[in-house]
Design brief:
It is a multi-pass membrane protein. By secondary structure, this protein is mostly helical. It is built from 15 helices and no strands.
């Protein structure tokens, strides 16, 4: 196992490099970068009154938004954002900084990217951990009961609920919950946006806890509704597979009760794949499900930060969040593989030559 972990850790380096390189190349050809936006803002303050000669001369500029600005001012703007250097040089400087986790400074927020990530991380972690806990608390008991009553009324009646939850993404549930319960067309039982109220600092500890979960109710419910179906199916069919094995038949033949067979013999083996898949579930919930939920409910987390950075073409923030998401995702997937072997020692990645 040690050899496998070492290989996977070493593989993280070229994987991160290739992902950053591809995204850096794509960003370079994307229109509306920070230089163009800064030039447009400068034009707004300076005014649009330019002579015909100036317009003809500026039409030859690399940036179409530079009309009406002097060449020196354009060069100053390019230098401000680091675009006075060539693309390979900028990419090399970025990689050097990333070796020490220096992601640069945000173009538009005037803060180091590491500080922004540190400020936004608690919101994303809080949302991800609570939603994952709730999904497991709902899916595992539901999956076990469906496995016990496979083909019966309970199993068939809940299958429609699972089909809806599996087909409809979390952000659709979020929109529906806002319409019905957050001041849309019906009720205003929950706040529309934000993680806490404006007077949060003035509340007592108990009231702070109530206020926090009051704001978290709809976002968490959206993620749970959109994410519990897959784990429920996984739990159900994992238990059904174990229930058909010989050791279960032998346990029943000894006269053991059904609950004793289920929780004394089947549970540990059936839960192997469910528990080992927890890191993979965290990857999906943190980096996919949270993104749209944070945007819809205006929760100031990493998802919203990344979205705003893409809209503003804030390249340091874009690459910083991308680097963090990719690194955590690769590490969590490695943890998932390690859990498989810890829970089931029969799995040996080194012996199978897994790369």
């Amino acid at each position: 196992m040690g050899t496998y972990i070492l290989k996977r850790l070493l593989l993280i380096i070229p994987t991160l490099f290739l992902i950053l390189l591809i995204n850096f190349a794509v960003i370079q050809i994307a229109p509306g970068g920070p230089v163009e936006q800064a030039i447009q803002q400068a034009q707004t303050f300076q005014g649009m009154g330019v002579s015909g000669a100036e317009t003809a001369q500026s039409s030859q500029s690399q940036y179409q938004g530079a009309r009406g600005l002097s060449a020196d001012m354009v060069e100053q703007i390019k230098a401000q954002y680091g675009f006075d250097k060539s693309a390979p040089e900028r990419f090399w400087l970025m990689l050097k900084g990333y070796l020490t986790f220096d992601f640069g400074t945000s173009f538009f927020k005037d803060k180091p990217v590491t500080q922004l990530l540190y400020e936004k991380m608690p919101v994303t972690i809080s949302l991800g951990l609570w939603s994952t806990l709730l999904i497991y608390l709902v899916s595992i008991p539901l999956g076990i009961r469906k496995a016990k009553q496979h083909g019966l009324i309970f199993d068939k009646s809940t299958s429609l609920l699972l089909a809806v939850g599996y087909a409809v993404p979390s952000f659709v549930f979020a929109v529906l919950l806002i319409v019905f319960f957050a001041g849309g067309s019906y009720f205003q039982w929950f706040p529309l946006q934000g993680l806490v109220s404006e007077n949060f600092s003035q509340l007592s500890m108990l009231d702070k806890i109530k206020d926090y979960f009051w704001h978290m109710s709809l976002p968490l419910l959206s993620i749970v509704l959109g994410g519990f179906a897959g784990l429920t199916y996984l739990t159900k069919y994992s238990f059904m597979e174990e229930l058909n094995k010989q050791y279960v038949l032998a346990a029943r033949a000894k006269g053991l009760t059904e609950n004793r067979v289920l929780y004394g013999h089947v549970f540990r083996n059936a839960m192997l794949i469910v528990i080992a898949g927890l890191p993979e579930a965290l990857v999906g919930i943190f980096f996919v499900g949270n993104l749209f939920i944070e945007i819809i409910f205006n929760l100031d987390g990493l998802g919203l930060l990344g979205f705003e950075a893409i809209v503003q073409r804030d390249y340091p923030v874009i690459f910083g969040t991308l680097f963090l998401f990719t690194l955590l995702g690769l590490i969590l997937r490695l943890v998932s593989d390690v859990l498989y072997q810890v829970i089931d020692p029969r799995i040996n990645f080194d012996a199978r030559g897994v790369k």
